[in-house]
Amino acid sequence: MLRDQPIARRSLLKGMGAGALAVGAGGFLSACGSGIKGAGSAASTGTITIGFITPLTGDLADFGASDKFVLSTVRALSAYTKGFKVGGKTYKVNIVVKDSQSSPTRAGQVAQQLIQTNHADMVLTTSTPETTNPVSVVCEKAGTPCLSTVVPWESWYAGLGGDPLKPTTTFKYCTMFFFGLTQFQGCFVPMWNRVKNNKEVACMYPNDSDGTAFREGFEPLIKASGYKVVDGGAYADGTTDYTSMISQFKSKDCEIYSNCPLPPDFNTFWKQASEQGFKPKLATVAKVLLFPADVAALGSLVDNIATDSWWGPYMPYNSSLDGQSASALASAYEAKTGSQWTQSIGSSYALFEVAKAAFGAVSDPHDKTEVASALHKVNYTGMCGPINFAAGPAPGVGIIPPVGVQWKASTGKYPYVMTVVDNSLNKKVKVQADLVPTNA
Fold first, then answer.
1. How many Å apart are CA 430 and CA 335, to the nearest integer?
2. Could you tell me where the DSSP H helices lie in 259-319?
3. Whether the predicted pLDDT of 189 surpasses 70
4. Is the pLDDT of residue 10 over 80?
5. 72, exposed or middle or buried, with CB in 10 Å at 0-12, 13-18, 19+?
């Protein structure tokens, strides 16, 4: 999920944490001292202000493409229109939206604006460490409750200064829900095991924070699963010729493929791989092909490529706000927008469920310490299933297990659809089709 500039570090922790901390050193964080806590007139108002930061424009816009729909849906729910009952009093709810523009610096700046100008009682943020990490750093420093999603938990945790290998640090104001490298292993390896192969894995990991995280954190998990790693090398983002990498994968007869590149880079690689005869038995991809817009550029080359899915109409979950099912929410999105559903609908929706649950557990919605404490104690079931922030794997981290899906050709309205082929990490989700080798 990470998209960042190349880094020259061997350490997984440094690689994942550097981005957010460097943003803080740029200047905007210095203005966010603890004196902001409870700033302005917010403490005396009858309105709860929730900030929402998401990449609506820029390179990460695919992640935020469904957020306008989610916002309009949530704002229309009686749970929000009637206000939150807190401590025997009903408070109006105001949601203030900020576009990170896919820039870490911009994400931190708008977080500061929400805290200082809008007097946000809580900040919600989503979609890649470039958005969530700088926002979380600002909120932790300023003493403002913050909830993040769609970011590997290790990257988020390291970005705040924690050690994912020894996750004992509690960040007082920040929480998140999603999954991490262990869940990638639990999602991808069972699919590998179901395809007869020689256990040689072609790894396409770039020289950026994504590549560092996967190279230092995921490759050991590949080896621990009984597979051999063939690392194609830390190539530069934007590379246009992958001939040498493809030749290496072919020479090692790699029958499994793993990646975490930028979508345009994968498209270039995958087309060249097809032309040059590299056809692994199963391709499992991370960061790319998460959304329908990514699929269109590859056409038939996307057949049976596998990836992870954290939400979809196949999830057996319902809204904690109005009882609507995941299937109904996906259908409502397609009816309103004319576009195919995306995974981000569920995770963004869940942010607002958790926010309401936390505010409902306090006596004063403007007491940021009390609200932050309530966030850490949220344990509920909603649009993304059960989320328990006290269950770990680190303090304030809730895990939503992904399922394995393949993109399969469809005779319906949309040419390709995500289809569940493995539920090893979440047995409550029904398998919809057999796993098929990518180049069957």
1. 24
2. 263-275, 292-296
3. yes
4. no
5. exposed
* Domain identity same for 335 and 217: no
Q: Which residue has the higher pLDDT, 158 or 74?
A: 74
Q: Does residue 429 lie in a domain region?
A: no
Instruction: Please give the pLDDT value at position 48.
Output: 98
Cβ(156)–Cβ(45) below 8 Å: no
Could you give the number of structural domains in the chain? 2
3-class secondary structure, 200: strand
Helix or strand holding residue 49 (H, E)? strand 47-54
The Cα 229–Cα 189 span in angstroms is 13
Is 108 domain-assigned? yes
Shared-domain flag, residues 232 and 85: no
Q: Is the pLDDT of residue 30 over 50?
A: no
Q: pLDDT band for position 440 (50/70/90)?
A: low
Per-residue burial over 90-118, b if 16 or more Cβ lie within 10 Å, else e, is ebebbbbbbbbbbbbbbbbbbbbbbbbeb
Considering only CA atoms, which of 136, 144, 98 is closest in space to residue 120? Answer: 144
| Nearest of 323, 366, 307 to residue 36 by alpha carbon | 366
d(CA 101, CA 128): 12
Instruction: Quick: pLDDT tens for 427-438.
Output: 999 999 999 999
Asked if residue 238 and residue 147 are part of one domain, the reply reads no
Distance CA 274, CA 392 (A): 41
Q: What is the pLDDT of residue 60?
A: 87
Rounded CA separation 39/263 (Å):
41
Residue 160 has pLDDT above 60, yes or no: yes
Domain shared by 88 and 197, yes or no: no
User: How many angstroms separate the Cα of 144 from the Cα of each of 32, 117, 369, 387, 405?
Assistant: 10, 13, 8, 21, 37
pTM comes to 0.89
Section 259-268 average pLDDT: 91
Average pLDDT, the chain: 90
Q: Which of 172, 180, 179, 183 is nearest to 377 (CA)?
A: 172
> Cα–Cα distance between 202 and 206 in angstroms, integer?
13
Least confident of 24-33, 50-59, 348-357, 423-432: 24-33
Q: Which helix (H) or strand (E) is 110 found in, with range?
A: helix 104-116
**148: domain range?**
12-179+314-399
